[in-house]
Specification:
Number of strands: 8
Distance between the termini: 37 Å
CATH class: Alpha Beta
Radius of gyration: 18 Å
Order of helices and strands: EEHEHHEHHEHEHEHEHHHH
Shape: globular
Length: 254
C-alpha cells in the first residue's frame, strides 16, 4: 500500500522522487514507529536512476517504495539545473544515523542486514557505542544464496525488529524489500548501500567540505577505483545527456 503524498512525488528523468526535507522524512518514520503506515525508504542517486531506467524490475521496486529521498549530490545538482524547487539532499548514511537516534528515543529495535560478517558486526558495535540505548536485535551479513532468503526473512521477522537497514548493493536491496515486504514485519525498511562499510571504519567518508560541494563521489572513486571508475564514467555520461535533453525541452516549452 503506497501512502506517498501526491504533492511531494515527482517524475524526475523517468524515476519517482519525493521532494521531502529530512525533517519530513523523520516525521514519517516517527508515525510509522507509532503504529502508522509502514514505509520503505529508498535513496535516489545517479547510478540508481540510470540503472532503473534500463531495469524494469528495479523501476517497479522504486515506484512501490513509500518514500524515495534525494540521496546523491548529482540528483540535487540536476534538480537545481532544471529549476525544480527541492529541499536539500539527505544522504542515506545521514538519514540512517537520524533514524538510529529516533530508535533510541522511541525504544524501537533495529536489525542490520548486509556487508561482510566482520563489517556488519563492527558497524553494530559502533552504532551502539554512538547511540547508548540503541537496541540492535539482529545482525546478518549480506552474502547469502537465493535459497537462503526465506530463512533470512524469517530471522528478521522473528527478531521483532522495528527498523531494518539493508546494506547491500542495488538492485538487491530494493528487490529484497519489495519481494518480502509483507513478510518482514518491520515498520521501516531502508536500503543503506555501503553505509556499514563507512560506519565500521572499513571505508572512510569524504571530508565534510567535499560533501558540501557534492564531490563525495570523487573520494569514493579514490578509495575504490577498480570497482567504480567505469561505472561512474558510464552513469554520469548518460545522466548528463538526460539533463541536457530535459533542459532543452524546458527551454522549448518556455
Amino acid at each position: 500500500m503506497n501512502q506517498t503524498p501526491s504533492n511531494t512525488r515527482i517524475d524526475f528523468l523517468g524515476c519517482p522522487l519525493d521532494l521531502l526535507a529530512e525533517q519530513a522524512l523523520i516525521e514519517d518514520a516517527t508515525r510509522a514507529l507509532n503504529g502508522g503506515v509502514r514505509i520503505r525508504l529508498e535513496g535516489l542517486n545517479v547510478a540508481k536512476l540510470i540503472d532503473a531506467r534500463a531495469t524494469p524490475f528495479l523501476m517497479r521496486a522504486l515506484h512501490e517504495a513509500e518514500r524515495i529521498h534525494i540521496d546523491g549530490a548529482g540528483i540535487a545538482i540536476g534538480l537545481k539545473w532544471l529549476d525544480i524547487p527541492a529541499p536539500p539532499r539527505c544522504a542515506g548514511i545521514d538519514l540512517m544515523h537520524k533514524l538510529c537516534a529516533l530508535a533510541v528515543k522511541t525504544n524501537a529495535s533495529v536489525y542490520l542486514l548486509g556487508a561482510r560478517t566482520g563489517v556488519v558486526g563492527s558497524a553494530a558495535q559502533r552504532l551502539v557505542s554512538q547511540y547508548p540505548g540503541l537496541r540492535i536485535v539482529g545482525v546478518r551479513d549480506g552474502y547469502f544464496r537465493a535459497e537462503e532468503e526465506a530463512a533470512v526473512v524469517e530471522d528478521i521477522r522473528a527478531s521483532g525488529a522495528d527498523l531494518l537497514f539493508v546494506g547491500m548493493s542495488s538492485p538487491k536491496k530494493e528487490l529484497l524489500l519489495q519481494q518480502y515486504w509483507p513478510q518482514l514485519g518491520v515498520k521501516i525498511g531502508m536500503g543503506v548501500g555501503g553505509s556499514f562499510d563507512v560506519i565500521s571504519g572499513e571505508l572512510k567518508r569524504a571530508p565534510y567540505w567535499m560533501q558540501k560541494l557534492g564531490m563525495e563521489w570523487c573520494f569514493r572513486l579514490y578509495q575504490e577505483p577498480q570497482r567504480l571508475f567505469w561505472r561512474y564514467i558510464k552513469t554520469n555520461f548518460f545522466y548528463m545527456l538526460l539533463l541536457l535533453h530535459a533542459r532543452s525541452q524546458n527551454l522549448i516549452n518556455k
